[in-house]
Amino acid sequence: MANVLAFVEQRDGVIGSAGREAVGVASALAAGLGGQAHALILGNASAAAGADGLGAAGAEVVAVGQHDALGDYNPEGYASVVAAHIRDGGFGAVVFTATTLGKDLAPRVAALLDVPLASDVTEVGVDGGVVTAVRPVYSGKAFATLAIDASPAIVSIRPNVFQPAQNAAAGTVSTFTPDVDTSAWRIRVVDRKSAADGQLDVAEAGIVVSGGRGMKGPEHWGLLEGLRDAIGSDVALGASRAVVDAGWRPHGEQVGQTGKTVAPKLYFAVGISGAIQHLAGMRTAKTIVAINRDADAPIFSVADYGIVGDLFEVVPALSERIAELKAAD
To answer: What are phi and psi of 77, to 5 degrees?
Structure first.
């Protein structure tokens, strides 16, 4: 019997879908290991705002560590607090999310605990009391199945791949003050640049509209914004590496091996040829729609639906048709 811990990210007291997915995976692993699903949230006084809702996602016990110094993410501070909580709790497994924060935090915690990390996994399970995981390798060309023979078994899950659990019971929420020694920190947060108000993180959105060099310039991005607005909520804009390198779009929108890995329900690849670097970041999307004038573009090899044509004609027509269908509902 072993309990499982999910580290849940929060921003100003708001818990995103990725945090609930982590709790759902922890709940599933706990059922296989015969234990309970726990959740850990860190932050300042506002961190507990969304804690009550984690019971519905599968958390039986929720711990909220509150300290003014943890208001902004600090790699050293968060890693030491999370590692100490894991040691004190004796957890058999720990679940992180493979978000920007999680990709930085999870390996630090694993190093402090001297255990391996299975990162960016798309499946988890328990076989004979051992946690197993499946993760893409070779830029998504193959999948590796891992048996994590360590205690705790640490995994980070790819966002939007797992469904949050539906649990009628309410979890028990408690707060504590972590032991934080800021004098030992070698890293300080000196500035924070947030996305525009209302703009979704491309890694967490359910639908992503991405553009590539075929857009011919940043002045044409209004076409993609029009498609995004026509679709409605839970839609984020993305971009290929070439676009970001050219300075057309911010790095936070980059999808790919050196950008963000996404797994939305629906992914539009507009004017994107489909270089392996880009495919590595989006090929696990549930449905992929490619729009490109080159019928031989590699993106069509992974697309569920493909439109060979001029995007400057296709995208406005598509946006208009989607708006018409929504207005008719």
So the answer is: -65, -50
- Cα Rg, the chain, nearest whole Å: 21
* CATH domain 4-184 topology: Rossmann fold (3.40.50)
- Alpha-carbon distance values, 313 to 212, 308, 324 (Å): 16, 11, 17
User: What are the sequence ranges of the domains in the chain?
Assistant: 4-184, 207-328
Q: Superfamily for 207-328?
A: TPP-binding domain (3.40.50.1220)
Please choose, from the candidates 2, 1, 97, the residue with its C-alpha nearest in 3D space to the C-alpha of residue 40. 97
CA distance linking residue 96 with residue 111, whole number of Å: 14
Segment 236-289, tens digit of pLDDT? 999 999 999 999 999 989 999 888 888 899 999 999 999 998 998 898 899 999
The 3-state secondary structure of 272-316 reads CCCCHHHHHHHCCCCEEEEEECCCCCHHHHCCCEEEECCHHHHHH
- Cis ω for the linkage preceding 218 (within 30 of 0): no
Same fold yes or no, 4-184 and 207-328: yes
Whole-number Å distance between alpha carbons of 68 and 74: 12
| pTM of the shown model | 0.84
